[in-house]
């Protein structure tokens, strides 16, 4: 079964507290989401394989570690997932970017895919799906389905805040996918929002509410 990795780091905890605060400005919220995404990516890429190459320092030639050419694609779930992309790319500048557009039926809470654009070699890449919130898990599960339809095999899910209900759904429907989160919250409320959460991440990133 896929593991849940809650990033236990003082900087992540501190920045998470700021973005939870309803008085945090759009500018600060957007910047902090990117920063937290970068810190979580640091943990999510801990298993990247290394090889070595010979370089020349100012003093001598030496054999040193370097990434083993593993290709990565970051895949934001539109629109809120866009807020995490820059943070991932700051850690993995060579990554390609795929996009999945989904909207949630407010009555059934189930996702509907309306857009999916990926690099041509997506099946050969390790995938990091990003979305600020893992609530019911419906959108994340559907996004993972879309990537698997395209032949992707090594997939990770990166979120800021996860609810137990969403974690359970991903672990049951996609037991091969590890989840990386900045925090595991208490529960979902009757409207499907994470509590205590941080509100609607998309609205807070883009200032649309």
Word description of this protein:
The protein is an alpha/beta fold. It is 33% helix and 31% strand. The chain contains six helices and 13 strands. Strands 1, 4, 5, 6, 7, 8, 9, 10 and 11 form a nine-stranded mixed sheet that branches. A hairpin with a 5-residue loop joins β12 and β13. α1 packs antiparallel against α2 and α2 crosses α3. The longest helix has 19 residues. The radius of gyration is 18 Å and the shape is globular.
What's the gist of this structure?
The protein has 209 residues and is of the alpha/beta class. It contains 6 helices and 13 strands. Strands 1, 4, 5, 6, 7, 8, 9, 10 and 11 form a 9-stranded mixed sheet that branches.
Gross morphology is globular
The helical percent reads 25-40%
- Low-confidence stretches are none
Structural class: alpha/beta
Q: What is the total tally of β strands? A: 13
Mean pLDDT: 93
| Strand portion | 25-35%
Task: Output the helix-strand order.
Answer: EHHEEEHEEEEEHEHEEEH
Largest sheet: 9 strands, mixed
- End-to-end distance, in Å? 38 Å
- The number of distinct helices, counting runs of at least 4 residues, comes to 6
Computed Rg: 18 Å
What attributes characterize this protein structure?
209 residues, alpha/beta, 6 helices, 13 strands, globular
How are the SSEs ordered, and which strands pair?
Layout: E1 4-6, H1 10-20, H2 26-44, E2 50-56, E3 61-67, E4 72-78, H3 82-91, E5 96-97, E6 99-104, E7 111-117, E8 126-130, E9 133-134, H4 138-149, E10 155-162, H5 164-173, E11 178-184, E12 187-188, E13 194-195, H6 201-206
Helix pairs in contact: 1-2, 2-3
């Amino acid at each position: 079964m896929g593991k849940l990795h809650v990033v236990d780091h003082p900087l992540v905890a501190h920045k998470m507290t700021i973005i939870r605060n309803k008085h945090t400005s759009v500018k600060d919220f957007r910047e902090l989401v990117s920063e937290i995404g970068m810190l979580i990516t640091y943990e999510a890429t801990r298993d990247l394989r290394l090889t070595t190459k010979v370089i020349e320092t100012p003093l001598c030639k030496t054999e040193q570690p370097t990434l083993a050419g593993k290709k990565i694609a970051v895949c934001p779930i539109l629109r809120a997932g866009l807020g995490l992309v820059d943070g991932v790319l700051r850690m993995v500048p060579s990554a390609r970017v795929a996009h999945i557009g989904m909207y949630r039926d407010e009555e059934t809470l189930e996702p509907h895919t309306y857009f999916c654009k990926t690099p041509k070699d997506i099946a050969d890449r390790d995938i990091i799906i990003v979305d600020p919130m893992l609530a019911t898990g419906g959108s994340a599960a559907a996004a993972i389905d879309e990537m698997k339809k395209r032949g992707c095999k090594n997939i990770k899910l990166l979120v800021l805040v996860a609810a137990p209900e969403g974690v359970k759904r991903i672990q049951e429907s996609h037991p091969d996918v590890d989840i990386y989160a900045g925090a595991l919250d208490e529960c979902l409320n009757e409207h499907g929002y994470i509590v205590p959460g941080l509100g609607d991440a998309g609205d807070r990133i883009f200032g649309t509410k």
